[in-house]
Amino acid sequence: MPELPEVAAIANFLDDHAAGFPIRRVDVASLAVLKTADPPYTALAGRIISRTRRIGKYLVIETTPGADSAADAEPVIDLVIHLSRAGWLRWSENLSPTPPRPGGKGPIALRVHCGMPGEGFDVTEAGTQKRLAVLIVRSPGDVERIATLGPDVLSLSREDFGAILADKGSRIKNLLTDQRVIAGIGNAYSDEILHTAKLSPFATAKNLAPEQVDTLYDAIRTVLADAITRLEGQEVAKMKSEKRTGLRVHARTGLPCPVCGDTIREVSFADRSFQYCPTCQTGGKPLADRRMSRLLK
To answer: What total of structural domains would you count in the chain?
Structure first.
């Protein structure tokens, strides 16, 4: 799943390559990804991309009227993209002028012709669980899930972060990935953050000692800053592999912990899992994995 570092890097990439250029055309290959109807996606054609930014894990492409727009054209229309678990953006300098086939079996959901002639990007989604969301809105605040986001994780002071934890009785893993509480962190980086902070994913947020909150706060900023730095200047096509190479515990089940050498373990749920190191994080004790327990009966 693209999280804060990847979405920020994609936003920076698009800002460098498309800001100031018109959107020549938008092709929709999957109507299911469109979660809004007013304004229609066709209203984007001819508009100028003014900037691209990030809100939480949402990509926001702001557009303004083009030179040939009507006098009453919308002053701002935002193309908002939530890549969800398996979405991605694929930039091309030789984008096919042939629209992708609607309802096709390929991964392309949306194609935007922008940038220099021939340039543009595809919004793609792998797998069978289609959760990608594309919204065309007058303001990101019109999107309920954006309007209800918690504060951006990188905007939080130590005091504000501590206050959030002190008010929550949930497991720290769940709190870090709840976008209504703190925006930007997902499954992968929460694993990395908790490993760096040497905290159990099952630790209760409000029960953390002040020094543990300090360590966790520092780990969040260190892990995210490192990921942002590694992705800086990367081509979009290389960002996925760059993310994987920087992960120490997430998606490394069965491999040795790079800190202590213990075996990385996993806790599985219905449709996802997380990884941790018993020695570094749980005093050497494996966490209960109910799904695996059922399979072993």
So the answer is: 2
Q: Alpha helix locations (H) across 149-277?
A: 158-166, 172-177, 187-197, 210-231, 236-246
In the DSSP assignment, the letter for residue 36 is -
Residues 178, 195 within the same domain: yes
Region label for 46, one of left (φ > 0), alpha (ψ between -120 and 50) or beta (otherwise) = left
**d(C-alpha 198, C-alpha 173), whole Å:** 12
User: Count of CB atoms within 10 A of residue 122's CB?
Assistant: 21
CATH number of residue 269's parent domain: 1.10.8.50
Report which of residues 271 and 171 the model is more confident about: 171
Range of the domain at 190: 153-296
Q: Is the pLDDT of residue 129 over 90?
A: no
Percent of the chain with pLDDT over 90: 84
| CATH number where 59 lies | 3.20.190.10
**Each residue's pLDDT tens digit, 30-83:** 999 999 999 999 999 999 999 999 999 999 999 999 988 888 889 999 999 999
Sequence letter at residue 260: C
| First and final C-alpha spacing in the chain | 32
* 99 and 196, same domain (yes or no): no
Task: Identify how many contiguous H helices and E strands the chain contains and give both numbers.
Answer: 9, 10
The 3 state secondary structure assigned to 92-139 is: ECCCCCCCCCCCCCCCEEEEEECCCCCCEEEEEECCCCCCCEEEEECC
CB 34 within 8 A of CB 216: no
Query: In terms of domains, do 142 and 159 share one?
Result: no
pTM of the model: 0.93
Give residue 291's pLDDT: 52
Q: Which of 108, 128, 147 is the last residue before a domain boundary?
A: 147
Indicate left, alpha or beta for 144 from its phi (over 0: left) and psi (-120 to 50: alpha).
alpha
